Amino acid sequence: MASDGWFDHKTLTTIEDTWKNLDYPPSKLHRPELLEEEREILELYKGWAHCMNEEFNASIEPGRKFYNFPEVVTFDIFGFTGRGDFKAHFDETFHYFSKSTFQIKNLEVFATSKTTGYATMYQRLIGGTAEDGKAFEMTYRITGILEKIDGKWQWVHEHVSFPTIMSSMKSDPTCSVKPQDAFQF
Length: 185
Hints:
Elements lengths: L14 H6 L14 H21 L17 E4 L2 E3 L4 H8 L7 E11 L4 E14 L5 E15 L2 E10 L2 E2 L4 E2 L7 H4 L3
Parallel strand pairs: 1-6
Antiparallel strand pairs: 1-2, 3-4, 4-5, 5-6, 7-8
């Protein structure tokens, strides 16, 4: 983990370590009988971080295994993508973010059953260069909902967002605005 609380694919370790590194207390809703499933879901996030940092620069293909494409519904920074349309969305947009460093902060994984779970966190892309040569960086909030099908965890829903500064109706792609400041009209 970096000194500022961000993890990458080399520093994400255990569920217990993610709890220790939250900026707030871990939820009391974690169920001990589902700890193994939470560990499995964490492995998916470790794999995603590795894919983003080590494989996406060459191709977005390795990222496909993380999604149940026919079932995915997303609300993300580009808008809404309905069930059945996510594959095209993935193909159109994910390569844009491929030349950056991916990190996670405040990751909290929840298993809600042996085959369903979710995770909440911040993710950021830093030091990025888009296909058009423009530099970019962004930090966003994300919730992922997962299902375990045929022994494999995959995302079936993601909600990605930036806070909005209500007085200007502009999003904050750094996620640095405080809620009490953002809500001033």
